[in-house]
Each structure stands twice: as structure tokens, then as C-alpha cells.
Amino acid sequence: LLHEGSRPMGVFCIKEGKVKVFKLGQQGKEQITAILKEGDLIGYRAMLGDSLYHVSVEALEDVVACHIPKTDFMSAFENDKSLHNKLIGELSNEVMNLTAIITDLAQKPVRERTAAALVMLSDIYKNGNKESDSIDISLTRESLANIVGTATETLIRILHDFKEEGLVESKGRKLTVTNVKTLERVGGIY
Questions:
Q1: DSSP letters spanning 57-122
Q2: What pLDDT is attached to residue 123?
Q3: What is the pTM (predicted TM-score) of this model?
């Protein structure tokens, strides 16, 4: 949907599906910074900052999104106080979340970061189903490693340990989180 370094022509609103937001490192390795889902708005940060896109956004599954041209979006932002306040709140929350992520990457061991990432993804993938004890996450192991900030091989070893502990199950690409509460504890989420 978006390519790092390109000029914003509008924003996208996701109607169905999930996308990954990522930045390429110096060696061309992806660092996934967010997974967005239905109802999320994409590309407004660059427009509000009058800058080029600093990240790329790619579909993880079939996605339906509407495009809002730049002039329409900016007009709504300037004239709709509730939209203005909502986006300012989103930006503030994003800064706080990114601060926490940077701290976690610098200080938490990979096992804890993996558990925390699985908890975060469980929330995204549960699709409002609060009743279910298990949540299916459909991501490649490489994408999950890019979220955690580790090598794919390290992630696979940790997932194997989590399977042995009864926290996750897997079948092919699909990973099922079966014990979110214990993963929260392992990930240091309170």
C-alpha cells in the first residue's frame, strides 16, 4: 500500500484484513513496527508531518481498503475537531508505545520479547472474540522474528519451547496461542 520514501497522495482506511508496517534496515532486513487491522488508518503521519513515508506497508492477507485523497483528508483534519483530537491522541499513544518497545528491545531477553509479541498479536488477531481461549495468528516465522527483533532460528527455538510448555500450538504457518495469561507473565506484561 505504501512504499518508504514515496510522497503521500492520501491515506488508506482498512476495511478488511491485516497489514504489516515495516522499515528496512541498512542490510535490507525488515523491522516490523506494527500490524494494523480493520478500522486502522494508514499514512496520515507523513501527511501531517508534510514528509515522505518513513515506512512501507504491505498486506499480510487479502485486504480491502479505501483511499482518501490528501486534499479531502487534510480538509477533514482541519475542520473536524473530533478527527483532529483522535489523531493527536493516536500519535501520542504511538510515541508512548514506541518508547516502551525501544526499552523492551534494549532490556528484555528474546524469550520475554517473543511472549510479549505473541500477546500483542493475540489481541490483534482475536477479531473481537473475547470468549475464545485460543487465538490463531497467521504470520511467517520470519515476519514474527522481525517483530521480535531476533533471528528466525532463535524465534523457532523459542516457539518450540513454548509448544513444549503448552503455550502455543502450530500447524504449518498458523500459530495458535493457547495460553495468553502465562505468555503475559513470561513477557512481563502486567
A1: EEESS--EEEEEEHHHHHHHHHH-HHHHHHHHHHHHHHHHHHHHHHHHHHHS-HHHHHHHHHHHHH
A2: 86
A3: 0.77
